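User: I'm curious whether this sequence folds into something compact or stays loose and floppy. Could you predict its structure so I can see for myself?
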Amino acid sequence: MTPRDQTRAWLLTQVLAGTLALEEAARSMGISERQARRLKGRLRRDGPAGLVHGNRGRVSPRRTDPAQIQAVVAHYRGTYQGANAQHFTELLAEHERISLGVATVRRALRAAGVVTPTTRRLPQHRARRERRSAEGLLLQLDGSPFRWLGPDGPRWSLLAAVDDATGDPVAAVFREQEDAAGYMELLRQVVTTRGIPAAVYRDRHGIFEVARHTGSSLEEDLAGVRFPTQVGRLFAELGIESIPAYSPQAKGRVERHWRTQQDRLAVELRLAGVRTLAEANALLPCYLARYRARFAVPPRRAEPAYVPLDPATDLDRLFCFKYQRKVAPDNTVRFEAEVLQIPPGPDRLSYARATVDVHERLDGSLAIYYRGRRLAVRPAPAQPVTLRARHARRPLPTTAEPMPLPPPAAEPPRAARRPRPPAPNHPWRTYRPAQNEQAAPSDPPLALPARAILPADGPTGQALRRSRGLGVVPLDPRPLRLPGAPGRPGTRPAREGQHA
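Assistant: Here's the prediction. I'll summarize afterward.
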């Protein structure tokens, strides 16, 4: 039986017991009173199995031929690309002799992943919805980000579940942001304090459902279905009907609830001196009790519709994030930054390459399940690290004190050396110019002072000595300046008519 059939069985059981009117049960089930009377007779005659439709699981004899559906998709991807569903249906009937309804063509294109151009949405008529008759038939879920501690305080999100029949905030929790873990904690409060509700009314946040524009994964393409979110999976496991709201006005009771809470709860937090998230959550139960006594309205039916939870139910196994992992050949499972070792179990010695379920609980702990049975795990030993020298341009400076070196041996003091004059047979004294290096007769020798000595090395001094027939003499460190010559020291004055 589906969760809807279970809810119908519970409501009709109350009708048979005389605690619920038939018309009230029909309104809660969303069917007519005549159909509710038929279901009541089936329940009395055949039990809960009589509520299951007889055609469930059968293939409809009036379904469209799959080959014709493939032909429709091929025509749209080829010739009629860009036409809307209504126009494409007319073109198929006119040119391809294929007569199908617009809804059938639209479903075929959507199933094939073909997006038709957006059509103009028709205006909808909205009306105020009547409250549900009993507590637990419908809960409205929502979150409100607000600076609850004042304009300078942090921005927290208050998640709450408001009963549609009474306006009672059944549960609430403060979170740093609106997240899936916060809604799991909120539902855990509802289930443990009241029971399992029949349905929830929520917005189309990505926490509750996968966005339509989000692409499907390879596993979803192979399975042919879209996998639910973590919170959507929790709704299905608890048998709670999840109803999306297509406008904020549709869940106006919880939206008006936020306006009241932002006015009253912010003052209560300030008067209590709350500064942390834990202190704010500790204040909520006392505040919600006073709020419930002040603003809640009595339901039309006194008996609540919450389904009590089985005491043997493992809540940590329900309210958690579930993932699938494949065991490595060394019987380890890697999840994020943690590596868990699986020891041999009673049913098999090795779990290598087996697919296991990893449960990440709300307290951050991990649990591994294989075919519904929890496995004993322990942290895996760290892998050994091979130490080797790293390539670096220069070694890092050390913070330790350097090892002291022995002092150098003392050398005896050396006596200052005095310059020695060149020997009589030194090349400077025995040098004689060659025949071709003699000065020209027309060029008179240069008259130098008696104490002036040209430098022994350098191109200028050597050229002057060769051209004037002078011998090589020791170097005089004092600068040489020719008498009457305005040039640099040691240079020859320019001749008349010659550039210096």
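Summary: Residues 446-454, 487-491, 496-500 have pLDDT under 50 and may be disordered. The CA atoms of residues 336 and 480 lie 87 Å apart.
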